[in-house]
Amino acid sequence: MAGRRAAVGVYAISVAAQIVGTGQQNIRLYERRGLLTPVRTSGGTRQYSEADLVVLRRIAELLEEGLNLAGVARVLDLEADNDRLRAELQRSRAR
DNA sequence: CTTCTGACA
DNA sequence: TGTCAGTA
Question: Which of residues 49-68 of A touch strand C (CB under 7 A)?
Answer without folding.
Answer: 63, 68
